[in-house]
Structure formats: structure tokens, C-alpha cells
Amino acid sequence: MGATLVLVNHELSPSQTRNLQSLCNCRVVDRTGLILDIFAQRARSHEGKLQVELAQLKHLASRLVRRLGNQDQQKGGAVGLRGPGETQLETDRRLIKVRIQQLQNRLAKVSKQREQNRKTRQKADIPTISLVGYTNAGKSSLFNAITQADVYAADQLFATLDPTLRRMQIQDVGTTILADTVGFIRFLPHDLVSAFKSTLQETVEASLLLHVIDVADERKNENIQAVNQVLEEIGAADIPTLLVYNKVDKLDGIQPFVERDDESKVTAVYLSAQSGEGIDLLFEAIHEQLRNELVKETLLLSPTAGNLYTLFKQQKGIKAEHFNEFGDRIINIEIDKVQWNKWAKQYPELIECIELAKWG
């Protein structure tokens, strides 16, 4: 048929690749090689390019063969004719090994920086929400719709390789971090999993996973299983997960809605990231999932305690308020317990405000 390239939807061994190339007289690329080629085209950030190069070199290292022709650098005879004492194949292997070590060292530094950022967020009790899902399910479009960001989104495989983090506010939860991550694919090569370990760490240590699913895809159930398998591989299977069925605008007769189980807990949200329909339902579902035990208190704030009043006002935690005859403001609050504990350490006078309200 005059083919110039043969793609095999399977992982080939080095010998199988060589034999097929000899048989077909053209380049043969297996599933892993194709994914790596796509990754190489999509990588934009410095870290993404390092990760892709590392995965490519690990893949290439097992596929090095002795080159055709007399290219060995071992020589004998008179002084001055001796080479480095190794064949070209051995030289290639050594250079690849050195480059892999360099890349791993650089990525270790990036990973250390990410780890410091994560510890800072954990110390401040800031929850992280991570978007996961099969590639091209619409994660970046949803990320943009939620955060009003301008992250690159396209109808193509692996449009996102670099994790993007954005801060957002959730009612009764406070500040949260939303992370857009690399899309998964069935039979994800292990080289890629190890190369993108620092990226996937955002998923492993998230407080909540939003599993984005293309509801219009005929193979959505297989895709869900593939994503769950990858989550299990990276150790994120036990993290609370909310299913987000995206692209409902592509189906007739389906409007955005929230799905609940027998205990009335939210299990899935149907929406369209493209049109923005159902985003409000997703915010409500996230609020339900992340909301901790609420602290309900009555506080008496003097006219000079405007800073404390502003704190509760910004968090929408004031449920009722009135003034007494002395001009003091009395407020009834409902605040997330984690947020309250942080404020109680930062503003010791809050406890005094509770006592004052009791004495009236």
C-alpha cells in the first residue's frame, strides 16, 4: 500500500520493532513511541520538556542497537590509533545514562520546590482540588470555566502536560487550590508515570479529585476504568472523588443536574464546561464535599472590631446580626472549623468576644 510509517496500537519489544522495520522497509512506531512523540509536541514549560526528554531517553535506552557499517571506535596497532576503548553502542549507552542522571537531578530540584509549596499549603490548611480524567475529556476547559483562567485548551490528545494551579474561594471552605493535570490514557507507559511523578504528586496529595468524563464518548465506561487504574498505580485510589460528566451540550434532552446516592451524598455532576451550564452546581457539590464541621457561635463585637467583622463578612459566615443599646454589634456565625481554628490562633480576642456575648 506504499506506507511510509506503520503504527502499532500495542507495546512492541525492541526486537519486534527491528523485525517489522526490516519487513516493511519503513519506520515502525508502537503505542508508547507514538504517545512520546505527541508529548514532545505538546510540552511547553521547561519542566514539561525535561519530563518528556527523560521518558524518551528511558524508552530509547532499551532500543539501542549496533549501527550498520564499521563504526566501532576500538582500534589496535600503533600509538595514536587507539579509540576510547568502547564501541559506538557503548558510547551511546553511556551518554544516555549521563543525560538521564542530569535530567533526574534537575527534576528532583523542581519536585523539591513543588513539595515545599505543597507543605506551605498544608500548613495553612488550604485544600487542593485536582482535575483528573481521560485525555481530551475537557479538563482544561472546565479549569478555565471555574477559575476564569486562560489555560491552553484544545480538542486534541494531551493538550495539557504541565500542571497549572489557581486559587479560588469556596463558600464555608475558604481559599482552595485547583490543579489542572496531565490527561490519562489506557495502558499508560510506566516510563511516563515515573517521568511525570512530580506532576502527578499534585493528584496524589489532593483533598478532592474531580474525575472529568466526556459523557458523549461511546467508550466512557472504559475510559473511567482506565483512569481508575492509573489512580491506583500512583496511589491516589482512596482520595475522595467527585464524577464530573462534561459535554452534556452534545447530547439531546439532557440538562445539567446533580446525581446523589441513597444517603443523599453528591456522587456526580452533569455539566458543560464549554457553555458554562452547570458550573454553579459543581461549586455546590465541591462545597458539600469539602465542607468540614461548622462552628456556630454568637460574638459581641465592639465598634473598634471592624477587622473581625470583615473576616466573617468575606467568608459569608454571618447568619444574623443586630446592635445592642451600647452600639456593640452582636453576630451569629457559622464558620468552617479549620478556618475558625486558624483565626482563633491569629486573633485571640475572638474567644473574649464569645464570652462577652454570653454575658450580654
Q: What do these coordinates show?
A:
- With 360 residues, this protein is α/β, with parallel strands linked by helices.
- The chain contains twelve helices and twelve strands.
- It has helices spanning 14-24, 31-42, 46-61, 88-123, 139-147, 190-195, 197-204, 220-233, 279-290, 306-314, 337-346, 349-359; strands at residues 5-8, 27-30, 128-133, 164-170, 174-180, 208-214, 241-246, 257-260, 266-270, 294-301, 318-323, 329-336.
- The protein has a seven-stranded mixed β-sheet with strand order 4-5-3-6-7-9-8, sandwiched between helices. A three-stranded antiparallel β-sheet has the order 10-12-11.
- A hairpin with a 3-residue loop joins strand 4 and strand 5 (174-180).
- Helix 3 packs across helix 4 (88-123).
- The longest helix is centred in the first third of the chain and has 36 residues, at 88-123.
- The chain is elongated, with a radius of gyration of 28 Å.
- It starts with a strand and ends with a helix.
- The model has no long low-confidence stretch (mean pLDDT 80).
- It is found in: Cytoplasm.
- Keywords: Coiled coil, Cytoplasm, GTP-binding, Magnesium, Metal-binding, Nucleotide-binding.
- GTPase that associates with the 50S ribosomal subunit and may have a role during protein synthesis or ribosome biogenesis.
- Residues 93-120 form a coiled coil.
- InterPro entries: G_HFLX_dom, GTP-bd, GTP-bd_M, GTPase_HflX, GTPase_HflX_N, GTPase_HflX_N_sf, P-loop_NTPase.
